[in-house]
Amino acid sequence: MTAETSQDDAVTEVLSALADPTRRRILDALAAHGEATATILATELPVSRQAIVKHLAVLTRAGLVAGHREGREARYTVLPARLGVTARWMDRVASEWGARLSAIKRLAEVDPEDG
Questions:
Q1: pLDDT at residue 57, as a whole number
Q2: C-beta atoms surrounding 92 within 10 Å
Q3: CB 22 within 8 A of CB 42
Q4: What's this model's pTM, rounded to 2 decimal places?
Q5: Residue 114 DSSP class
Q6: Contact 73, 53 (CB under 8 A)
Q7: How far are the Cα atoms of 26, 36, 76 from residue 64, in angstroms, in the given order?
Q8: Residue-level pLDDT at 86
Q9: What is the pLDDT of residue 24?
Q10: Per-residue pLDDT tens listing for the chain (115 residues)
Q11: How many other CB atoms sit within 10 Å of the CB of residue 91?
């Protein structure tokens, strides 16, 4: 597997994980708290603790959060690296599309009489 393939896989995992609005809300709540348990998150969001745990598993697989045991509960924190990789990919795609649209605009604005 090449580095580019690995990066593409990371972006795909992140976008897939963030496609769900509940997972985005969980990520926002974790970012606000710095660290939280599924129990704490369940008190703030309109879903059960069990659903939070399932969403946290998806976010963990995508590399967006990490959990560590503290007593009987797992405490989760946001891992920003994968978000950075995804943001850079989105910037690159936006730039490429910007260049394409500029080229189309230039072609559309060419006076046909100028040849």
A1: 97
A2: 10
A3: no
A4: 0.76
A5: G
A6: no
A7: 11, 14, 10
A8: 84
A9: 97
A10: 666 656 678 899 999 999 999 999 999 999 999 999 999 999 999 999 999 999 999 999 999 999 999 899 999 999 999 988 888 888 888 777 777 777 788 778 886 676 5
A11: 10
* H runs (alpha helix) in 19-80: 21-33, 38-44, 49-61
CA-wise closest residue to 30 among 79, 87, 69, 72: 79
Residue 5 confidence (pLDDT): 57
Contacts of residue 26, Cβ cutoff 8 Å, sequence gap at least 6: 41, 45, 52, 55, 56, 59
Q: Would you state the structure tokens that stand for residue 46, as one six-digit string?
A: 């309109």
CA–CA separation, 32 and 69 (whole Å)? 20
User: What is d(CA 1, CA 9) in angstroms, rounded to the nearest whole number?
Assistant: 10
**3-state DSSP of 79-107:** CCHHHHHHHHHHHHHHHHHHHHHHHHHHH
How many residues make up the chain in this entry? 115
In degrees and rounded to multiples of 5, residue 72 shows phi and psi of -90, -10
